[in-house]
Amino acid sequence: KLATSYIGCVGRDEYGKQLEKAAAEDGVKVQYMVVVDKPTGTCAVVVTEKVRSLVANLGAANSYKVTHLQEAENWKLVERARTCYIAGFFLTVSLDSILAVAKHFSENEKTFVMNLSAPFISQFFKDQLLQVMPYIDILIGNEAEGAAFSEAMGYNTKDLKEIIQKAVDLPKERKDRPRVVIFTQGPDPILLCKDGKVTEFPILPVAEEEILDTNGAGDAWVGGLLSQLVFGASIEEAIHAGNYAANVIIKRSGCTFPEKPDYKPPQ
Length: 267
Fold this sequence. Notes:
Number of helices: 10
CATH architecture of one domain: 3-Layer(aba) Sandwich
Number of strands: 10
CATH class of one domain: Alpha Beta
Strand content: 15-25%
Mean pLDDT: 96
Distance between the termini: 24 Å
Largest sheet: 6 strands, mixed
Strand order of the largest sheet: 5-6-7-8-9-10
Shape: globular
CATH topology of one domain: UDP-N-acetylmuramoyl-L-alanine:D-glutamate ligase
């Protein structure tokens, strides 16, 4: 039986309670660090012609400390986990926490997944990203994040197929576990770079009139991917699940799901 745990920082307020309640309803165990001097982070979503923009108030999310992670009950979750996913946004908060987890996963041959999250991460937090890079088994980004990464690294190319190969080739702590990099491209095919080869995976088609908004589509895609990886699926099979999840999300208002999925793994 698999379980999912989530660690972060919230305020002692109603939004923090909502986050914990929503997670519990979906079977996710939360181990929040709780602060009293800042509110739980919130984010306003503005949808214009089906495309979303985000305005965030990070609040307590910026206050996470590695000391919370090091508490016995919390570190036990890290030790028991087989797969870990950390958003690139967390590079702006607690690099020490990321490195502690990343090194543990590398030393114990477990899967460490990270997301570039936004162009500004590569632009302004490149040094922090590169400290974590040797431990990343699967790196995920979209076309804008890939382009920003290329510019920050001085690659002098806008060709995503070149950029993704260069990201794969960056130094890796465990040479026996080559890095895999995935770039999503909105309506264009997913790019996967694995074992020195770039492969394209078409997304699932959706009619323009079926799209309500794109809010949560990227996160849903990653969730779909991870949902299959933890059960031992290949990265190719997991990409198929990510495409399915994103396809469902963009046809619904916000990041919401039908009560039961109708996902069918590729034959």
